[in-house]
């Protein structure tokens, strides 16, 4: 008998869930059925404080009226417009609004539908740019160990998370990786940016020496590595990467899918760290996570390099059916309005000190081997149970969920990234609940 014949309306087998222990989940499901501002409602009627902004994306909190209304209106007015050789006004309006908050000189935007697609788009722009500049031998892409750049082939090739790579063959050729910067022995319990490890950027010089600059198109890094468990750049590290890239004619791509749209207290990490990349990838917070959409920002110099040749010719052979989709564009405009009206793109800077103190107050909890923070991001690294990595953190996740708190875990690291609307009283609620979990964790 096929699975289909066994199916009942609430049968869970057909949906093969992403990055999930499917069999375990389906035995004991956790479903959200509603959300408002800082809280989710579960299928069994409980309230759960959102300590992770969904998956790092609901920066303005849940079910915000401006965004809901923008989507509702757009769906009834213009549902879809072809994206190639045609357009609609909101996609242009949105691009203008986006470059207003972007680092100076990043005056052009390509649309995608996710962070993974933003990464593929950025890598392709970088390769094509080198070629149109007469530097066609620059085909190598450099990523970093423990980097996360989504799940498509380019992204897992430059990414450095072993489990996301090892099953999928030879990936892209011509990719190399810099070492990651995580150093518990030297930097554990640092508040903000670590002192040690800035010189690891010079590993890029070693890679350039090995391959020769004339073969390297671009370097891609997350300014703050999120998915791997929150690795904060050591002091001076990003500046040094920028210097080396500039010196060798290599493009620097910041993957800001997590850090974009206010997570650190500035619109983008590029502004927070005062380091200017050539390309920025975004998604998530662009639409408050509500409708899938991403955007890739490029410098005027990159854009202009393509605007040559006959005007009737397509300048860049790339794009998606849903690039700049009307409903997604409307959702993004509603999101930017909400961010602006409530000052959310800089609010993390005001809360960062309070957040840091509250987070580091967990230092005395059992099995905590590191706590780190930047902006409205926090991470607590736990001592793995011998022979059973990831189990301690995952059991903390389950206990927190029972106690009405949503946290995110990766390996034995707990990551926290609440909506930027969080109030101090809710920061207190979050850490009171988390202390309770950690005190009684296995
Ligand atoms: N780049 C970066 C830096 C990301 O963090 C992506 C690309 C891919 O985005 P999409 O939209 O294709 O998922 C991401 C996504 C987690 C977690 O809990 C992180 C992400 C996604 C889901 C969970 O750490 N990052
Ligand atoms: N596969 C097929 C058969 C298609 O026709 C298309 C788009 O027309 C795609 C994939 C790409 O889809 P999208 O543009 O939504 O990424």
UniProtKB/TrEMBL annotation:
**What biological-process terms (Gene Ontology) are attached?**
biotin biosynthetic process
Question: A Gene Ontology molecular-function term?
Answer: adenosylmethionine-8-amino-7-oxononanoate transaminase activity
As cofactor, the record names:
pyridoxal 5'-phosphate
Keyword Amino-acid biosynthesis belongs to the record: no
Pfam family of the protein (one): Aminotran_3
According to its UniProt record, the EC number is: 2.6.1.18
Which InterPro entries does this entry report, sorted A to Z? Aminotrans_3, Aminotrans_3_PPA_site, PyrdxlP-dep_Trfase, PyrdxlP-dep_Trfase_major, PyrdxlP-dep_Trfase_small
Which keywords accompany this UniProt record? Aminotransferase, Pyridoxal phosphate, Pyruvate, Transferase
Superkingdom of this protein's organism: Bacteria
* Classification via SUPFAM superfamilies: PLP-dependent transferases
Spell out the Gene3D superfamilies in the cross-references. Aspartate Aminotransferase, domain 1, Type I PLP-dependent aspartate aminotransferase-like (Major domain)
Give the family this protein belongs to, as stated in its UniProt record: Belongs to the class-III pyridoxal-phosphate-dependent aminotransferase family.
State the protein's name.
Beta-alanine--pyruvate transaminase
